[in-house]
Amino acid sequence: MFDRDLNLVIWNPQFAKLLGFPDELLYEGAPLASFFRHNAERGEYGDGDLDALIDERIELARQHKAHRFQRVTKDGIVLDVVGNPLPSGGFVTTYTDVTERVNLEKELSRAKADSELASRISHTGFWRVQLDPQVLFLSPEVYRIYGLPEDQPVTLEQAIGAYHPEDKPIVEKLVSEAIRESKPFEFELRIIRPDGDVRYGNTRGFCEIDEAGKTTAIFGTFQDATSRVLAEQAHKESDRRYQQLYETSPVMLWTCGKGYYLEAINDRFARKLGYEKDELLNTDVLKLATEPTKKLVQEVLRPKLLKDGLYENQLAGFVHRNGSVVEVEMSAYLESEPGSDEFRVLASAVDVSSRFEAERRLRRALEEAELANRTKSQFLANISHELRTPLNSIIGFSQFMSQELLGPLGNPQYLEYSQDILYSGEHLLNLINDILDITKIEAGETQIDEERVVIADLIESCLRMVRQRARAKGLVLRIEGGGEKAPVILADERLFKQILLNLLTNAIKFTSEGEITVRTGVEENSPFIEVSDTGIGIAEVDQEAVLLPFVQIADAMTRNHEGSGLGLPLSKSLAELHGGHLKLTSVVGEGTVVRINLPGTRLLSKHTAPAG
Fold first, then answer.
1. What beta strand segments (E) does 272-365 contain?
2. How far apart are CA 552 and CA 605, in angstroms?
3. 565, 582: one domain
4. Do both 162 and 53 map to the same domain?
5. How many domains is the chain built from?
């Protein structure tokens, strides 16, 4: 105690002990300033001017105001300092050692923080309900699960009101039974938050019982199980979809263990083999396979599966209930646990029976077509030979008669008839030759006799042969790129001349007026020869057809002009024998352009060397 002049009046030994004052300071009338100076000198007030620190504290003491604060000494002792002024002046100050209490409060605070952290991490809160009177306690995590602020008081009625309407009667019944029988309880329920979000919770409760055995309160944990429940629901939905896909798959699916016994199959697998699913489960899958497939699985596929973990698109066969064979394309995947020799095989198969049957029918059809084609070619060759022998005689005798080599025929009309016979015979012979050429090409019997061919000479030779026929129709024959500008190629001259003659003959035949142009040259290092006319042209829809053998267009061309329809197809085939191709461009009423393009490998020279 200090008087109004701030001098010491009375003290107890604990005062000196707690504050560590020496005996020479403790005497009646000792000034308060001496105690402040002692504390300042030993650093109790921190750094600064000692007199200023002392004066500051003396000034506060003169105000005679009640005060309370905690002070930590240099030794770590926590003192609770309480000062009260006296009516006559002066004041009484008590110093209490609260170190143990403060440390305990800190430990409790840390424990509470740890508990709240663990509660938040595990999404588990705590609750307690006192029954009479009803008092509800909710931990912060329960508030979070409910979606409520922690500073908002919640009654038991409000907490129950947040239950999902379908869960509320079930929960109330379980809790009532637990209270009545004083037994633990556990259940899951849905909480509807204020924002409408639904959370799933799991609660475990226990009963507090008084001496009479009556339940006075219930308490327990409340865990947010939303993530787990949603994951379980998603897993169940995934399983449901997988099972649906498994059962409705158009592919045969099955699972078997180490001993080939079927553990699971889908409907497609059972139906494809003529069984019900229940009949095949736990059956050795190899008993359903053909003998070649059993051998394939045991000797090849199983070792490959154990080594690589899978095999794909292997041809196999299963035996149908009726004894027929179901041909499949089979794949399998090995599923095993690390460190275990147990495994499962997940397999699938696609029924390829219809595809195999279609392929067999196609092969048979191709074989029959090839046989028919060979038969046709042989027949045409034979019949052509049989026709040529009498035809040569007819042509020879008609030439004798038309030239009257053995004397006058007498009647002039006989001469006209003999010329008609000669023309018809030559036309028929040309037709037979074309047929023979086509059949030889189709049979792969035509050989190319390659030699140096000067395109300019070839064009001149062919034009001489058709010039008379063109003049008779009043047509003009033109050449572009001929002479020294024409390329030199490597080709079969006889066959190439046949190509050009066919194109020129066709052009003259289907052109009533105008001109026919033969053009040649080299483009992008590839030689070409082209015949264009100003004839009646060919409709676009018919341009593919005229390149097929024995095809004639059903219009004015076939009604007004004779022919076999072999000229263009034969030219196309001969061009392809040389590695080239034929391109046809035509417009009805304007004319036709037929172009033969050869590969660059057949070009010997872009221009013909000048003579001399």
1. 310-319, 325-336, 343-351
2. 38
3. yes
4. no
5. 5
Same domain, 293 and 327: yes
Asked if residue 402 is part of any domain, the answer here is: yes
How far is residue 391's CA from residue 393's CA, in Å, rounded to a whole number?
5
Q: Which residues of the chain have pLDDT under 50?
A: 555-559, 611-612
- Rounded Cα–Cα distance for residues 302 and 311 (Å): 9
Residue-number span of the structural domain to which 367 is assigned: 358-442
In this prediction, residue 612 carries a pLDDT of 45
> Between the CA of residue 199 and those of 144, 146, 243, 379, what are the distances in Å?
11, 8, 29, 89
Q: How crowded is the C-beta side of 289, counted as CA atoms within 13 Å? A: 20
- Please tell me the chain's helix, strand, coil percentages from 3-state DSSP, rounded to the nearest 5: 45, 25, 30
527 with 594, same domain? yes
**In the sheet where 262-265 sits, what is the strand order?**
262-265, 252-256, 343-351, 325-336, 310-319
β-pair partners for 594:
531, 584
Taking each continuous run of H as one helix and of E as one strand, the counts in the chain are: 18, 21
Q: Encoding tokens for residue 328?
A: 């499949």
Residue 112's pLDDT is what?
A: 65
pLDDT in tens, 340-389: 778 889 999 988 888 888 888 888 888 887 787 777 767 766 776 677 77
pTM above 0.85, yes or no: no
Q: Are 59 and 152 part of one and the same domain?
A: no
